[in-house]
Design goal:
The complex is a heterodimer of chains A (about 375) and B (about 300). With about 375 residues, chain A is an all-alpha fold. Chain A has 14 helices and four strands. In chain A, strands 1-2 form a two-stranded antiparallel ribbon. In chain A, strands 3-4 form a two-stranded antiparallel sheet. Chain A is globular. The model of chain B has no long low-confidence stretch (mean pLDDT about 85). The chains are: A mainly alpha (about 375), B mainly alpha (about 300).
Chain lengths: ~375, ~300
């Protein structure tokens, strides 16, 4: 009866997203509406969930530190935008007999397919040579590739170059939400599968994994390509929701922002990435609402301090809780259940009852010193 | 030919700055195996410190060599103090954790400095006062070299000689080499490793600040995010030369500087528009890491299991 459960959850999720989407439209949903500001925030949360979850696959689960995620997002955004700007109208009119909504959805889905494929190809091109490197070298090479991608796009006049690129707005919250959920489900299933076990084994000890017969290069490239494809999808959705693209949206700082999301949430935790994406998207908005402080003649706005506070949070997280909020654990309702009573003497005082044994080592792993 | 010489002079000017910054990266990496992402921002802090010193002490109004010297040394001292503070409060607490943790801390530190400066000084660029009378000298026919360029060459060479002397002929230099060789053994031999690491950050930061003030004489526009790109390029220079290797950092810096200006000058002949200037360093980095990961002067280290 597993498929019934799946079917029910799919229907519930889509219905929920549909209702939210309807609430964002002009008429609202039976009178209940969401204002444009909140709507925009929700969309960006969903896009950031896609980005954080997909980056988590490579950084958190495979343990390969990539800081060029914005580059793949840019590839997806620009390639799909080129498609919709050039052929969008034609495709839409040829599917016009199905009604306006279906026709524009078809265009968006084709755009997403294109963005994902092109970003995946870019991921393969970047990943195959650079995943031979480890640690900080890999980090700096992915950063370099992302910057090269950005500079190349900046020099293509067909997509607007430095002036920016106007994109038709095919995306709405329904699609962004569906793809956010889809990303989470796909990444979760990958992690739970044989492939995921192999990826985690690479993270834990690459040499040991190789000795156990895991084809580490293949798995690393696979996870990098999948991760890039999802970053591409996030880019497509961003492009078609924002309706305007500029290469400034895809600078280092964007990659760092995604890193901050998964680091705060806990690298290697699905729920952590989602929480991180929500925190990083909402925090600047919360700061905006704080009253300004006055020092002497100058008035400081907290919203200008957004990135300073992010940076401080990042540093403090690293010092106080390097594994992030969740570490590699997942949030689950089991946490709320009381552990069953055990016979006295079987467990030490303060033992992590209810947490699987494999996860108890996590704290030790994080503090393990790699030096020498 | 004249323009080639001119391009080369300009390239080596930028290259000397890259080299100065690359030295800090390479020393810190040699000792802590940490890419100090905040190093590029120390360069920016140095430029701002120089700007504040020069304007508040009135050197901007009447340019003199003395004013320049005081500005340079003052900003180097300020940057050294800030570099040590960063090491003490951000990097030391996470040193015992994994290398990814320290790397993320460094990224956080870099963002912190950048946006703190944006907050304090606003993002609009400022104009750094000219502290030395600038004149152009003609050499090799049409090529010219300005006083500022000569100043950059002379000061960087002097600083590099001073660094080389410190590392190879002083006690603290010996300690630095020992720590970079093996930090635990150095500790067992009675070396105060915390002090040596702090000292390394101080020297590296001072060199970066010198780079900042010198660049500001060459290109007077300073802004809080100016350190990001130049820092990354200097890091590339350090990797190109062989990270952890001091002559390598200088060689790498000069090569990257020359390569960049040559791409701007001649790239259009081979189909690379000059707008790709900023991509050159990264392309070089990727090639180097894929072909010779240890860099030009670095030695291959076998991984221990």
């Amino acid at each position: 009866m597993n498929w019934v459960k799946t079917l029910i959850s799919v229907v519930v999720v889509i219905a929920l997203l549909y209702v939210l989407n309807a609430m964002m439209s002009k008429g609202g949903f039976f009178g209940a509406g969401i204002d444009d500001y909140t709507a925009r925030l929700l969309v960006f949360i969903a896009i950031n969930v896609i980005l954080a979850t997909s980056l988590n696959l490579i950084n958190g689960f495979t343990g390969q530190f990539s800081i060029g995620h914005a580059g793949f997002m840019a590839v997806g955004a620009y390639s799909s935008a080129y498609f919709t700007v050039t052929y969008g109208k034609a495709v839409e009119s040829s599917f016009g007999f199905l009604g306006e909504t279906v026709a524009s959805s078809v265009v968006l889905l084709i755009a997403i397919l294109i963005g994902a494929i092109v970003a995946a190809i870019a991921g393969a091109i970047v990943g195959i040579p650079s995943l031979r490197l480890k640690g900080d070298y890999l980090a700096i090479v992915t950063l370099g590739f992302a910057e090269i991608i950005r500079i190349v796009i900046l020099n293509i006049d067909a997509v607007g170059g430095a002036t920016g690129y106007q994109v038709p707005g095919y995306a709405n919250f329904l699609w962004v939400g569906i793809f956010a959920v889809l990303t989470v489900v796909v990444v979760r299933n990958i992690v739970k599968s044989d492939t995921g076990r192999a990826l985690i084994s690479i993270r834990e000890d690459e040499l040991a994994a190789e000795a156990m017969g895991v084809n580490t290069t293949r798995y690393k490239v696979t996870s990098f390509v999948i991760s890039s494809a999802f970053a591409g999808i996030a880019g497509v959705l961003f492009a078609h929701y924002n309706k305007f693209l500029s290469t400034n949206d895809f600078q280092f700082i964007k990659s760092f922002e995604i890193i901050i999301m998964i680091v705060i949430g806990g690298m290697g935790s699905m729920t952590g990435a989602i929480v991180g994406a929500i925190v990083v998207t909402l925090l600047p908005e919360l700061l905006r609402n704080l009253p300004p402080i006055q020092v002497g003649a100058t008035v400081f706005q907290f919203s200008d301090l957004r990135l300073v506070i992010f940076a401080l949070i990042l540093i403090l997280t690293m010092i106080l809780r390097p594994q992030g909020i969740f570490g590699t654990r997942e949030f689950s309702l089991n946490w709320l259940r009381r552990p069953r009573k055990q016979n006295e003497g079987t467990s030490a005082v303060g033992a992590d009852v209810g947490v699987p044994e494999a996860q108890q080592d996590e704290a030790k792993r994080i503090t393990h010193d790699e030096e020498q | 030919m004249d323009t080639f010489v001119q391009q080369l002079i300009n390239g080596l000017t930028i290259g000397s700055i890259y080299a100065l910054i690359a030295l800090g990266y390479t020393m810190v990496y040699g000792i802590l195996r940490l890419i100090n992402f905040a190093h590029g921002d120390i360069y920016m802090v140095g430029a701002y410190a120089g700007f504040i010193l020069a304007t508040s002490l009135g050197f901007a109004a009447n340019p003199s060599a003395l004013g320049f010297g005081i500005t340079l040394i003052g900003s180097m001292a300020i940057a050294a103090a800030i570099g040590m503070a960063i090491e003490r409060f951000a990097y030391r607490p996470v040193r015992k954790f994994s290398r990814m943790t320290t790397l993320i801390t460094a990224i956080g530190m870099s963002l912190f400095i950048e946006y703190l400066f944006v907050f304090i000084f606003s993002g609009t660029p400022r104009s750094f006062p000219q502290l030395i009378q600038n004149e152009n000298y003609t050499i090799f026919g049409n090529a010219t070299v300005s006083t500022t360029q000569l100043l950059i060459f002379v000061v960087s060479i002097l600083l590099m000689i001073a660094l080389q002397y410190t590392i190879f002929y002083t006690k603290i230099g010996k300690a630095m080499r020992a720590v970079s060789f093996n930090i635990n053994s150095a500790k067992l031999m009675g070396i105060n490793t915390d002090f040596v690491i702090a000292f390394t950050f101080a020297i590296g930061s001072a060199l970066a600040a010198a780079g900042g003030v010198l660049t500001a004489q060459y290109n007077p526009k300073i802004e809080p995010l100016m350190g990001i790109l130049i820092g990354l390029k200097a890091f590339v220079a350090a990797v190109l030369g062989g990270i952890g290797n001091i002559p390598g950092a200088v060689l790498g810096g000069l090569l990257i500087g020359a390569a960049e200006t040559l791409v701007v000058g001649y790239g259009s002949y081979i189909g690379i528009p000059s707008t790709y200037r900023d991509a050159v360093a990264f392309a070089i980095l990727i090639l180097v890491l894929l072909v010779r990961p240890a860099g030009l002067l670095g030695s291959n280290v076998q991984e221990k299991v």
